[in-house]
Amino acid sequence: MIAVIDYSVGNPGSILNMLRKIGAKAELSADEKVLSRANKLILPGVGAFDTGMANLRVKNLIPLLDELVMKKEIPILGICLGMQLLGKGSEEGIAEGLGWLNFTSVRFKFVESDKKLKVPHMGWNNIFVRRSSLLLKELSVDSRYYFVHSYYAHPNEPQIILAETSYGINFASVLQKNNIFGVQFHPEKSHRFGLQLLRNFAECC
């Protein structure tokens, strides 16, 4: 069973629908018993970094998630803001992140020649695979995903980057370290490409 973590941030309904399309058993919950019996976790997210961390604290989820992810090594997929929360912090706020991956989220800053690029980065874009992973299995070279974000991960460990995306700069759009996965885009809004990525997470990772 895949548990989609309910911390009152994000678009969990669309994620659940996509998981059910691929035949994966999934449940939205913040209940300790439900999360503890899951064999995979998804941390969705839309909104502000500090709000996301505050909601995790209010629901007393951080100690439980530390136990499940870092000690029991349950696979987890962070989506958009959910991925950013996996890092150490963000220029968007002052809260500390979960700290499971060694990166900080930074805001897009463009030089004068790139001022035509809007922030947030919004719409469809490709990913360029830098390292093989079961998460990216059977994805075609023209795979496109839907992005909506003003901040992106700036890893201090380049080896955790699975794929990058170009938007004025090349930024890390897919990350992995051991059982911890993150995508900056929204697979639940990315049609067949997102469906395949979620299938890979559910069946392979």
CATH topology type = Rossmann fold
Structural class: alpha/beta
How helical, in percent, are the residues? 25-40%
Instruction: List SSEs in N-to-C order.
Output: EHEHEHHEHEEEEEEEEEH
Number of E strands: 13
User: What is the count of distinct domains?
Assistant: 1
Strand portion, in percent?
25-35%
CATH homology superfamily: Class I glutamine amidotransferase (GATase) domain
CATH architecture: 3-Layer(aba) Sandwich
Distance between the termini: 13 Å
Provide the gyration radius in Å. 16 Å
CATH class: Alpha Beta
Organism: Anaeroselena agilis
GO molecular function, one term: lyase activity
Pathway: Amino-acid biosynthesis; L-histidine biosynthesis; L-histidine from 5-phospho-alpha-D-ribose 1-diphosphate: step 5/9
Domain Glutamine amidotransferase: 4-201
Descriptive labels:
globular, alpha/beta, Rossmann fold, 205 residues, eight-stranded mixed beta sheet, three-stranded mixed beta sheet
Brief write-up:
With 205 residues, this protein is α/β, with parallel strands linked by helices.
Question: Topology, please?
Answer:
Layout: E1 2-5, H1 12-21, E2 26-29, H2 32-37, E3 40-43, H3 49-58, H4 62-71, E4 76-79, H5 81-84, E5 89-90, E6 103-107, E7 121-126, E8 128-129, E9 144-149, E10 151-155, E11 161-167, E12 169-177, E13 180-183, H6 191-203
Parallel strand pairs: 1-2, 1-3, 3-4, 4-13, 5-6
Antiparallel strand pairs: 6-10, 7-9, 8-11, 11-12, 12-13
